[in-house]
From TrEMBL:
Residues 359-395 are annotated as: Disordered. This is Leucine-rich repeat-containing protein 2. Keywords: Leucine-rich repeat, Repeat. The keyword Heme does not apply. Residues 372-395 have a biased composition (Basic and acidic residues). InterPro entries: Leu-rich_rpt, Leu-rich_rpt_4, Leu-rich_rpt_typical-subtyp, LRR_dom_sf, LRR_domain-containing. Coiled coil: none annotated. GO terms for cellular component: cytoplasm.
């Protein structure tokens, strides 16, 4: 008996293979489209852009507007062309330029402000970032036209009382510095609209005198050591955005509903176990972000599908290491981690605003302190095993 001859139609194999290839290409196309729309990809792009700007000494104010980052290449080229020349004094012909009312300074070689700055009292904006400057001089009171003080990521440990003389001041950003207190005189800046004191890590309270700031619509005091919502904040009657995330809050005041104009409330990374029913009176609230690891009770009406509220609950995981996703960049300090966390959340919220419903929060890059999971679609499910376990622990 001879060998058995196997007859196989190669055209069948080719057809099968071509079908698989087509399916694989279709999958690749869909995956590429998904990644293009993914908030995580946008976050990575923005983080790389910020890193590039830092290396080139470009001030944050040039590429970060209203808390969001413009990553266009054209913008980067424009910023590089207009970047501040690293000199020990201000250019004499500065008054002839279109930026005659704007002062910009960036780079770790700066340890103090140039002496000639005190002569430029016509300036309306200061944008100073990523320097080693520790002191804002008292002669700042001479800048009566000042509208914007943008001073993030420096080494500032103290704000002078004279800052209260800036009656036209609209925006104050002293985020990611080394402040332990805010001068009560800031309450005299009656036209202030935006206040950002985030990322100072040791800041524990705001002076009651800030209650006079009735025009404020934006307050960010995240990544500090607040154990309660400051009384002065509760008296800012026009407040629309409040970020008090990453602090030591264990509860919210029952009179939180004093903030009748509040639209966005960020509370994640605290130790809240419940949300007060008075929050139901915040009729304009459209975004609420909390950490779900400790929450065991919240008003059911907050999750009513008929409300415009986008309710986002995050479950935080411990930091397992301090490396980014690419594995070769180590976060330099706690401030770097906090800053990265905020960039992640800003990108997520920007993406969330473009959607009609709450969407899953993308996992941040490895090593950030926001390895999170989200409760979606504004629903609190008491029958969920995780919630049952928490209820049992509380009881």
């Amino acid at each position: 008996m001879g060998h058995k001859v196997v007859v196989f139609d190669i055209s069948v194999v080719r057809a099968l293979w071509e079908t698989r290839v087509k399916k694989h290409k279709a999958w690749q196309k869909k995956e590429a489209e998904r990644l293009e729309k993914s908030a995580l990809e946008k976050i990575k792009e923005e983080w790389n852009f910020v890193a590039e700007c830092r290396r080139k000494g470009i001030p944050q104010a040039a590429y970060c507007k209203n808390g969001f980052i413009d990553t266009s290449v054209r913008l980067l080229d424009k910023i590089e062309r207009n970047a501040l020349t690293r000199q020990s004094s201000l250019p004499k012909d500065r008054g002839k330029r279109s930026s005659a009312f704007v002062f910009e300074l960036s780079g770790e070689h700066w340890t103090e402000l140039p002496d000639s700055l005190k002569e430029q009292t016509h300036l309306k904006e200061w944008h100073i970032s990523n320097t080693l400057i520790q002191i804002i001089p008292t002669y700042i009171e001479l800048f009566q036209a000042m509208r914007i003080l943008d001073l993030p990521k420096n080494q500032i440990s103290h704000l002078p009382a004279e800052i209260g003389c800036l009656k036209n001041l609209k925006e104050l950003n002293v985020s990611f510095n080394h402040l332990k207190s805010i001068p009560p005189e800031l309450g005299d800046c009656e036209n202030l609209d935006r206040l950002d004191c985030s990322g100072n890590l040791e800041l524990m309270e705001l002076p009651f005198e800030l209650s006079n700031l009735k025009q404020v619509t934006f307050v960010d005091i995240s990544a500090n050591k607040f154990s309660s919502v400051p009384i002065c904040v509760l008296r800012m009657s026009n407040l629309q955005w409040l970020d008090i995330s990453n602090n030591n809050l264990i509860d919210l005041p029952q009179d939180i509903d004093r903030l009748e104009e509040l639209q966005s409330f960020l509370l994640y990374k605290n130790k809240l176990t419940y949300l007060p029913y008075s929050m139901l009176n915040l009729k304009k609230l459209t975004l609420l972000v909390v950490s779900g690891d400790h929450l065991v009770e919240l008003p059911t009406a907050l999750c009513d599908s008929s409300t415009p509220l986008k309710f986002v609950s995050l479950r935080d995981n411990p930091i397992d290491n301090a490396r980014c996703e690419d594995g070769d960049e180590i976060m330099e300090s706690e401030r770097d981690r906090q800053h990265f966390d905020k960039e992640v959340m800003k990108a997520y919220i920007e993406d969330l605003k473009e959607r009609e419903t709450v969407c899953p929060l993308p996992k941040s890059q490895r090593g950030s302190s926001m390895n999170t999971h989200e409760e979606t679609d504004c629903k609190w499910e008491p029958d969920d095993p995780v919630n049952q376990r928490r209820d049992k622990e509380v009881s």
